[in-house]
Design goal:
Layout: E1 2-7, E2 10-18, E3 22-26, H1 37-42, E4 48-52, H2 69-79, E5 86-90, H3 92-103, E6 110-114, H4 128-143, H5 146-158, H6 171-185, E7 209-214, H7 219-231, E8 235-240, H8 247-250, H9 252-265
Parallel strand pairs: 3-4, 3-5, 5-6, 6-7, 7-8
Antiparallel strand pairs: 1-2, 2-4
Length: 269
């Protein structure tokens, strides 16, 4: 089922299918809801799976107005009647999931965080060899070369940043490029209202938390997840040795199996 959910002036594009506890999928900042197509297909026999495009991504439409990602998620939960959801967030989607869980304690059954960004987390310098890749991205952005930006970001986030080879190819890489192109071409949204820093409040997350990451991701993201495991109570960690930043997109079969095992073990399904 496809829904159009109003939040302020935005029309959020939402898909819902399946039965069981609600599992809301929050996409990365280089993708849109299509990165979770395999989760919606494979997990709908155990969960009511919901995925939506945040502002600036996919087919969601909006003007540049003051808004909150937490408020947008709350609007989706209310419109789709999703009591006590499990939040599955990848990268920037994980940041939204954590911010929502802290803003609404007791209203989230569990968190599944994949290579998660964290609001307020300290920034770590990049190693020299990876900094060169970041510099190339910066030059392409300044030149307004969106095709080059897209290609570099595909290598940064789909492939091992320190490798020259393509980790993901074929239709999946084509889909990444298509999703990210929409985000790159979207007019900037300059009025987002960020919540207070979450990093110092992670111990307040009392629900079960699954931390998943790819071993081929940026080293500072791998190190951040190791630190999160010590800061978040009730956290379980899983590392996929053959994945980079988007394990649920790169290897959905293994990722989905870990999600189901975690939810069974923690009594969430």
């Amino acid at each position: 089922m496809t829904l159009s959910v109003l939040s302020g002036s935005a029309v959020l594009a939402v898909e819902r299918s399946g039965n069981g506890p609600a599992l809301i999928c929050l996409h990365a900042g280089v993708a849109d809801r299509r990165m979770f197509a395999a989760q919606q297909h494979d997990l709908a026999d155990r969960f009511k799976v919901v995925r939506y495009d945040r502002r600036g991504f996919g087919t969601t439409t909006t003007v540049d107005e003051p808004f909150s990602h937490v408020a947008d998620l709350a609007a989706v939960i209310e419109a789709a009647d999703l009591a006590d959801p499990i939040l599955l967030g990848c990268s920037q989607g994980g940041r939204v999931a954590v911010d929502f869980a802290l803003a609404h304690p007791g209203k989230v059954r569990g968190l599944v965080l994949i290579a998660s960004a964290i609001n307020g987390a300290p920034m770590e310098p990049l190693p020299g060899d990876i900094q060169a890749l970041a510099d190339a991205l910066d030059a392409a952005e300044k030149a307004g070369d969106l095709a080059a930006v897209n290609a570099i970001e595909a290598h940064m986030w789909l492939d091992e940043p320190r490798s020259a080879r393509s980790q993901v190819s074929g239709p999946r890489r084509d889909l990444f490029l298509a999703m990210n192109r929409i985000a790159l071409e979207h007019p900037p949204l300059t009025r987002v209202q960020d919540p207070p820093s979450a990093f110092e409040r992670l111990s307040a997350l009392r629900m079960p938390v699954l931390l998943m990451q790819g071993a081929l991701d940026f080293p500072h993201i791998v190190a951040r997840h190791a630190r999160l495991a010590g800061l978040i109570p009730n956290a379980r960690t899983v590392t996929f040795e053959d994945c980079a930043h988007l394990p649920s997109f790169e290897n959905p079969t293994a990722t989905n199996a870990e999600i189901c095992a975690f939810c069974r073990d923690r009594g969430l399904i």
